[in-house]
Amino acid sequence: MAKRKKATWTGIFARSVSALSRIGLHVNAQVVDGVVKSAIDKRRPPAGAGQWISGVAMGAAGMRRFRLYRPPGVKLGERLPLMVMLHGCLQDAKSFATSTRMNGIAARERFLVLYPEQDRVSNAQGCWNWFDTSAGRAYGEVALIMKAIDQVCLMYPVDRTRVAVAGLSAGASMAALLVSRHPERFRAVVMHSGIPPGTAHSTLSAMGAMVGQRSTKPLVATPAALAGAWPPLMVIHGGLDRVVASSNGQAAVQAWADAAGATAVKQRSVQRGSRYPTRITEFKRRGSTVAKLVEIARLGHAWSGGAAKQPYSDERGPDASRMAWVFAAKQFRAR
Fold first, then answer.
1. Distance between alpha carbon 7 and the CA centroid of its chain, in Å?
2. CA nearest to 99, candidates 109, 81, 85
3. pLDDT per position as a tens digit, 137-173
4. What is the 3-state secondary structure (H, E, C) of 74-134?
5. CB atoms within 10 A of CB 284
């Protein structure tokens, strides 16, 4: 009897271990399969014609991967404008390209698009460390992005006199910091839902800035700014943004305008079809736009007019990608 009981419990234990092993193997297989599919999907280019080129920029602060979109039909000897796109937190180059649909505009209007990509080792959420100026990480990342731009300008048909930069959230803040450090390299900058330079210097101060509890220091009025060579800024910000307070957008354009001695002109309202209405305020100096604020009252923390069913994208807003390109193209023509 005791032997039979022992055998019974041994059998139950053996069968349980066997079942758990099979479940474990199944779960492990699912995990491995998911990782493989994710890696394959990340390497697959976004939908649409044109080339999706991989690259790496290296410098004293480490390395960063980037992707370059090259539209189809580039002719020998042709030089195209370059739009630099800096993604937000929890995004990468491909997801940002997909949600903004900037590549489609680039294919129609004929320009290159560079997507630098933050390393998750440098920031677990994939955020650009725009705020970490005290420790110097922000400036190290600025240098790496500039390395990527220089590399692309050297290897591909870029017109160096027609370069603009745009970003979302942390990418918008990094775009503004990038331009404030190298104003002579850019012809336009677009901040979508970001925080201007001089508002934070550490992780803690960045948290305060996000909720609108930090004031923005004046930008240094460089000779380039005073001479009108400071690249014009366009800010796009949602009134329902619960991640980055809309007061940051207002602070950004005011800092830009103050640095160049520009004043605000009459505000106007724009409504296109069923898209969210906007209020636009321009700051001008001697008839030229120095800063432009596009306020979208019903927009949250998302790329306005982006692809449907994508994170941090709201298809009901006016097309921010189109606005960014039109704004940049106007500055290219003016130069």
1. 64
2. 85
3. 999 999 999 999 999 999 999 999 999 999 999 999 9
4. CCCCCCEEEEEEECCCCCCHHHHHHHHCHHHHHHHHCCEEEEECCCCCCCCCCCCCCCCCC
5. 17
pTM here is: 0.86
The pLDDT tens digits for 294-321 are: 999 999 999 999 999 999 999 999 999 9
Give the type of residue at 126.
G
Q: Decide: 294 and 130 in contact? Cβ < 8 Å.
A: no
Instruction: Tokens 């394959």: give the residue.
Output: 40
Q: Residue 138: enclosing H or E segment and its boundaries? A: helix 137-155
- Identity of residue 213: Q
Task: Give the β-pairing of 278-285 and 268-270.
Answer: antiparallel
Every domain of the chain and the residues it spans:
46-334
To the question of domain 46-334 being in CATH 1.20.120.1200, the answer is: no
Q: How many residues does the chain have?
A: 335
Q: If we measure between CA atoms, which residue out of 140, 1, 2, 112 comes closest to residue 50?
A: 112
